[in-house]
Each structure stands twice: as C-alpha cells, then as structure tokens.
C-alpha cells in the first residue's frame, strides 16, 4: 500500500474542496434558477438551505474521511464493520465514474467552443464550423482531451497534483468571473438583468417548488454523496478544525454560485437587448446547455471583434470550473484502486481514465438514448440515495464517542461546542427526512 498524501495547507484544501464543489452546475444552473424563482428570494433560501442541509452532509463526509484515513470503500467498511459499507462505497465509485463520463463530454464542448473563439480571430471558417457543430469526431476528440487533462493532474497526487492546480485554477476562475462581470455591466440591458437577479420577490419564498429547487441546488452543487469530499477529508491534517474548514468550503461554493449569477443574468438581458431570444416557449428563461452553447455565443457574436475575446475568456472559465470538479471525481476510484489493491498511482490513474473515456465514448455514440438517461440515473436518483446512506452511517451506525474523539484531535473542547450540540442529532433525524422528501419529489 502506498503512503497516503495530505493537503499541505488549509488554503490548499479549501480551494481544492471548493473547486470540487464549483462545477458547471453552479455557472449554468444556479443563475437561471434564481431568475426563474423570485430573484434574491431564491438566493436567500439557497444560502439558508446550503447550511441547513448541505453543510451537515458535507461534515459527515469530511469526518468519516479523516477519521478512517481511507478511500470511500474502506472508510464505509471500517465504520460499519459490514459488507453493506463496502458495497455502498463501491456504488459511490461507480456513480462518480458515470457522472465523470457524461461530464467529460460536456467539458469537451467547452474546450471546443473556447478554441472556436480563437479560430474566429484567425478567420479559419471551416475549422470554426467543425468546432461548434455536433459530430461524433468532435465529441470524442475533445472528451478524450479533457479526460487526459484530468488524468495528468491526478497523477501528481494530493499536494503536487490536486492541491497545486486547485491553488492556481480557483483564483484564476474568480479573476475571470470578476473581469467578465465588470465588462458585461458596461453594456446596455445589463442593469435590467441585475434588478431581476437582486430584487427579491418574497411572494415566492415559501413556494414548495422554489424550496425543493433551492435544496437540490445546494445539495448537488457541493458534490455530496459520491465520496469526493470523503476522500478529500481523508487527506486533511489532524490539526485542522473540521467544522470551520467545512464552513469555508460551503462559503466559497456559495460565493462562486452568486458571482456566476451576477455574470450570467445581466449577460442574458444584454443578449435580449441585442435581439437574442432568451425565453423559452413557456416564457421561462433558457437554462442549461442551450444557454451556454446557443444564447451566450449569439450574444458574443453581436459584440463585434471584442466578442471573440469575451467568448474565449468565458469558455476558459467554464473549462476551469469543469477541471476542478473532474479531478476530485477521478480521485475517488483512483484512491480505492491504489489503497485497496496496491496498484501504483500512475497505472491506476491511466487505467480508470481509460475506462471512463470508454464509457464516455459509448454515451457519445448513443447520445440520444444514453446521455439524458445517465444524467438522470446518477444525479437525480443515485446521488441523493448515497447522501441518505452517508447520513445513516454518520448518524446511526458510527459510534458517537468515536466521532467526538475525531473532533477532539483538533479541538479539546469539541464536546462543549455548538457543532457537537446540534450536528449528531441533526444528521441523524433532519437530513434523512429532507433527502427522502427531495427524492420523492424528483419522481
């Protein structure tokens, strides 16, 4: 068994874990949900639910990971002492690998659209057309490129790979978002979008659909349930106070989501001002891949020559958001293969990256039938159920005195703290009920 890595600094862990949490969903899902659900009223409920639901589950993962110093399979096996724990861990590894398989396809599109901005600058028309048209060759080439990029970072291990690149990529992501917000705010139509984003419609606050949407966004945006935070938690030093570390991760994740809204919603209203259609037939704001690959590129086209530079910056931003998430996803099965089966890290990374790319290729070549299905099975069904299992392990299976002992490594007075007075019963009773309600509604 190889020596386990460890994050060398608190900042390194916070940026890596926040990078895992900050994915494409924060940037393309959150803003349109806000605009469609009462503006700032949704933001307030999202922040509230991020701490009411997502933070306690995040802490369950971090605590299990650090206490066991293990990958997801061995960690859940240790605290449960049963085959059920190991089986849940393997289920988590399979789920996260399938999420990465479809994620790599979408991230590949981001790279292609970024390169298209460059080909526009050099006026390479045929290349530009190929990069933005939907074809098997384009999908497979750029998906392979993205998986390769992810694998090269994960090969470096925890401090020399994941941490080193997270510390570079996350500040770059913040910088690009802020520069793009600054530019978009100078354009006609931006202020109207800003009002819709920031002015709350409190009549919608207690709308059950809004609450469920905000809860789902909070839960999924922190990449919970699939073991990424558990594995990252296992690389955290015993000296670090986990409750405050977890809160830092949650805050950075929320900040990126809110900043993404400050960029995307004003940009959509700039597009509207420039004659681009931003509403669907049902009258709702366009979201998801149509927003990213149709509405915003149409906006960049109306900006003249500067539009190519804005498009390039935007798709670099999207690629960074994708990479910081994909490295944490790949680390989950890699950690298991390295630690449980004694495979060298380099071999494990290439082996698993190849398997994931083959899954991506199968999805890409059967796009109509498989793409939506894989997304639904993994994110709507498997992820909430895994989150539920983690709550059960942390709240009902794992012995309370062992959890307290883990917290005392970094805080002798943990037993008197507010976290210990609330979290154990909260993760035992409240979180499972909320997740079950969310899961029931997703049907």
Automatic annotation (TrEMBL):
Its main location: membrane. GO terms for cellular component: membrane. The chain crosses the membrane at residues 12-31, 43-64, 90-119, 139-158, 170-191, 211-233, 245-272, 309-336, 348-375, 381-398, 418-440. It comes from the Bacteria. InterPro entries: Na/ntran_symport, SNS_sf, YocR/YhdH-like. The keyword GTP-binding does not apply. It is found in: Membrane. It is a multi-pass membrane protein. Keywords: Membrane, Transmembrane, Transmembrane helix, Transport. This is Transporter. It comes from Lacimicrobium alkaliphilum.
